[in-house]
Amino acid sequence: MLITCPTFLILNVVNIEFKIMIRKIVTFTLILISLTSTYSQNNSLFERLRAIKTSGSLTFYNVDGIAITSESMIYSYNDINLKMAYNLYNVSSEKKEKNITLRCENLFTRTKNVRSDKITQYNSYFFVKNKNNKVIVFHFGSINKTNKDFEIDFINLVIDNKIPKSCFSDRPINKINFASRIIEIEDNCNYANVNSIQCPFNGQMSWSLHENLSDAKKQVEYEFEITKSKKLGQLVKEEMINLNFEGINTIAKRVTFVVENNDTINIDLKSIEGKKLIIYYIAEKVRSYNISCVLSHWEDDKIASNGLPTLLSKIIQL
What is the top-level taxon of the source organism (predicted)? Predict the structure, then answer.
């Protein structure tokens, strides 16, 4: 005898299977979108990120005006060695917490330092157990802003060894990657920090690449306020001028300081008392990069006929 299945049961089974198939497709699509978004975000970050690895245990990073340091220690991750690390970074008395979103064992603390009525420096310290059960310390320093989600994402990238080699600058220095333009520089130039170059008698410059131009403009204003807060001397001139920055006509702030003798001056600066320091503050979009840039030179540096020392002449024209 032929047994037939009622039509409504067949339709019900088909409907259930269809719903399961749709659910799988939706789930796969959401995963794909998430992975694509993460890949895109990281690629954007890596385009802005620059780093320097020392011959020792320190690595320095700069992105979005945030200064980052990681130090890989030889000590095992335990209470005794963590206390040593706290002392080294002067946070022994600060309350430590665990961040549950980090993919490894950790303790962290955050501090802030009000340097003036316009400048507050934020610091985050993470003491993390790496894959070899050793202590690695991360420090994030920024002005007038903090990005807690970024800090976690960045630490995970470092721990998982996902920072591309293309983000790292060459040592010793004979050329720099300035917003994707490779610039040859003199042999006697040195790194003062990531994206910060000092060339004796030929000028100094520092820069950062930002996610948007608004952030870059804020950064140069913060840098100006920081310079004033150092009280190195008298601000004798402040003006907005037109200049050419990497082939783009823009407006920059130019200031002149005269170094003065006062109680806060460093003994190493006594020899430059009375000298003029000229500083340019620029924020502009160049080759799709949002750049904050500070360039400076002393009045008695090797000034060319264009009114600028060699290093600055490679970036700006008056």
Answer: Bacteria
pLDDT for the residue numbered 268: 60
Report residue 131 CA to chain centroid gap. 25
Confidence of residue 35 (pLDDT cuts 50, 70, 90): very low
Q: How many CB atoms lie within 10 A of CB 171?
A: 11
Please provide the CATH number assigned to the domain covering 50-167. Answer: 3.40.1000
Please provide the DSSP assignment of 1-36 as one string. Answer: ------HHHHHHHHHHHHHHHHHHHHHHHHHHHHHH
* Statement: the pTM of the whole predicted model exceeds 0.90: no
The residue extents of the domains of the chain are 50-167, 187-317
β-bridge mates for residue 70, sequence order? 59, 138
Tell me if 174 sits within 8 A of 188, measured CB to CB.
Answer: no
Which residue type is seen at 255?
A: V
Sequential DSSP letters for 115-173 = -SSS-EEEEEEEEEE-TTSEEEEEEEEEES---HHHHHHHHHHHHTT-S-GGGBPPSS-
Per-residue pLDDT tens for 190-213? Answer: 888 899 999 999 999 999 999 999
